[in-house]
Amino acid sequence: PSIQEIPTKPFDGQKPGTSGLRKRVKVFQQEHYTENFIQSIFNSIEAKGSTLVIGGDGRYFSPETVQTILKIGSANGVTKFIVGKDSILSTPAVSNIIRKYKANGGILLTASHNPGGPDKDFGIKYNVSNGGPAPENVTNKIYEKTKTIKSYKVIEAPPVDLSKIGDFSYGPSAVSIIDSVADYVELLESIFDFPLIKSFLSSHSNDFRVLFDGLHGVTGPYAKALFLDVLGLPESSVQNCIPLPDFGGGHPDPNLTYAHTLVDAVEKNGIEFGAASDGDGDRNMIYGKGAFVTPSDSVAIIAHWADAIPYFKKGGVKGLARSMPTSKAIDLVAQKKGFEYFEVPTGWKFFGNLMDAGRLSICGEESFGTGSDHIREKDGLWAVIAWLNILAAANRESPNKLLGINDLLYAHYATYGRSFFSRYDYEEVPSTGANALVAHLNLALDSSSLTNTEHTSASTGTKFTVSGLYDFAYTDPIDHSVSKNQGQVITFSDGSRVVFRLSGTGSEGATVRMYVERYVAPEAGAEELKRDAAEGLKGLIEVALELSQLKKFLGVDKPTVIT
Ligand code: VG1
Ligand code: CO
Description:
GO terms for molecular function: magnesium ion binding; phosphoglucomutase activity. By secondary structure, this protein is an alpha/beta fold. The chain is built from 19 helices and 27 strands.
């Protein structure tokens, strides 16, 4: 078929954020908007002769966008497209497929945990040949191309039927529509000890019940395959596992606020092990009756127990890492076990180079992201199965007492101490206020005006002395690229820490995140270590809000979400 060149003009603001370009669906639906961004991707990579994976969380506007990518990609010389059936592939599944079939890259259609539907969010993200999100040099290049684009190319061909698995030809290109789930299940089966998990769960079908909530995101079919088919659990162990274009009107974010369907069911039925994932399947929350695992603790505990997982038992643990705002719990595991460890900026793309260099095996972010070097994205179901594998292994050593989530948590705190951690999100606040807050902190940073000042919490009477204030910058140890302005950090003399950051995934206004962390050593004793996190952090949070004058700048009294 003939290739047509369609004239267009640049749109402002097509700058990929922490995880791709995310905007309201209505923005993507403007004439030429989506086409411009996709052509800009092809203008930034070697499209001719390439193999490209396409998938996503199935949200509203995905099927149309797959057809757009096929048209433009084919006109730009892509040889082969590998597409998930019905445009569905979770983010970890795409990462795996790129690696497994040695594709040159992939395009993911998702806005992750943001709500979907005609009035909600859509997103487009480009991943490179290692299966991970494009690094900043690539996303910057895409952005530059969006600013000068004059035309895009399309072929004229009838749309591909995305519901039929098989190999088809499409203009000059080939299209493979693949099963969304099979490769991913095979991958996890090569990593975990499923026979051990299965025998543990089947011998505790009454006192260790599992409930997974897909929040109507992409993980539903994956979870059914794993929990029902592979592990043989009853139907009642999964809920909300049909992917819907608008996630059933919900907010597919696995935290205590948005995953209330899971929290309610766990509490009502006294479920010992509950878990949820986000819209695109890369996040996870571990939550059982009376037991909540913060993501910062989760990755530390997985690292501590790595030997229980066949993949790490065999390949060893090469190193650990976390994003900067994530608590330092995982650092303590690395120190004790003698592993190398790293602190990178927020966003999974910063872990990829370390993994490719063979220096990183297990890593995580406080934002419910946990994963390993089995792929180059964070992986929600991987983390859930990792926890089940670890619990099954721990219980093998404890035949007389059934160990649950809290037993593992408390044992971990008793060995390493506990990093109390919380994040306050102020979503969709005016950008002017958010920028003023950043400027205020920069001023304090430049003038050292806060350093050595003492602050007393009004309600708890605890005193905190500021020991330092800095703007986090990162030099990649492998390619030496530098990323600046990655968050402002205030440190205190007792080792506590507060971080302020602007979100890079929002679609409207600005979102400010405040992260607080306070470490308590094992010597403090069980009672102190088991305290409620909100209580353990109360004084520090008060001081952080006072120091930053956040409420004044943002003009709001309370955060929209606390995790
Ligand atoms: C947020 C999280 C970050 C995560 C990113 C993408 O970014 O804080 O840790 O990597 O979302 O996650 P930001 O810039 O809004 O703080 V996902 O599941 O949306 O791919
Ligand atoms: Co996500």
